[in-house]
Task: structure prediction
Amino acid sequence: MQKTLRLLCLAIPCFAQAPSAYPPYASLADIMAGILLPKSNAVFGVTKQAPKNESEWTSVQTDAAVLVEAGNLILARGRLKENGDPVPQSADFKRHVQALVAAAKGAHKAALRKDPDAVFAACEPLYQACYSCHQAYRFCPTCQEASRQ
Ligand code: HEC
Result:
């Protein structure tokens, strides 16, 4: 068995990306509804009411950190959309993910500084990241996505 695998590796560049023990299971819609939506809402919430104590700040810090991590979840190889199609891996789609990650990092840094104004400032690019990816990839799955794959 080992030998066969080694031989295969000579022929194709396998193991370039180590296979994960746990391949993606949740759909992209699950990741969005279960992580992106509640975690971003928690960050946006700071603009309505600033955290009042240490534990409320810790909670926003954690939410923003998980939003950053969501970039990896979205792009995990083998992740499928709700309709069973693979999540795009195009450069354009990755740019949208990168915008999300950058904005969430900004929110995380602001939360670490416990600076409500800085969290507020990070919310605009965060919102834009959701909005612009949805414009391109969520609401028009047949026309735009097909040409952007
Ligand atoms: C890189 C692209 C991208 C970014 C960034 C993104 N989304 Fe999405 N979102 C999608 C796509 C594509 C779908 C459709 C998922 C499917 O069909 O499985 C979706 C679907 C959703 C859904 C619907 C889930 C359902 O149950 O049907 C919600 C809610 C959502 N996104 C929230 C957000 C929020 C909030 C953000 C920003 C914090 C965000 N998304 C950022 C691409 C993105």
About this structure: Residues 24-148 form a domain with the Four Helix Bundle (Hemerythrin (Met), subunit A) fold (CATH 1.20.120.10). The pocket of heme C is lined by residues 27-29, 32-33, 36-37, 40, 74, 81-83, 93, 96-97, 100, 126, 129-130, 133-134, 137-138 (CB under 6 Å). The chain has six helices and no strands. Helices lie at 2-11, 28-45, 54-75, 91-112, 116-138, 144-148.
